Amino acid sequence: MIQILKGDICYSTDRNTLITVPDGFLVWENGLCTGVFDRLPDQYSRLPVEDCTGHLVIPGLTDLHIHAPQYAFRGFKMDLELLEWLNSSAFPEEAKYADPDYARNAYSIFVNDMRKSATTRACLFATLHLPATELLMDLLEESGLETFVGKVNMDRNCPDYLCEESAEASAAATIEWLDHISGKYVHTKPILTPRFIPACTDELMTRLAGIQKAYGLPVQSHLSENPEEIAWVQELVPSSASYGDAYDQFGLFGGDVPTIMAHCVHCPEDEAALLKKRGVYIAHCPQSNANLTSGAAPVRAFLDQDQKMGLGSDIAGGTSLSIFRAMAEAIQVSKLRARFTGDGSRPLTMEEAFFLGTKGGGSFFGKAGSFEEGYECDILVLDESRIPHPQKLSLKERLERYIYLSGEDWILHKYVKGAKLF
Ligand code: GUN
Ligand code: FE
Question: Is 306 found in the same domain as 184?
Answer without folding.
Answer: yes
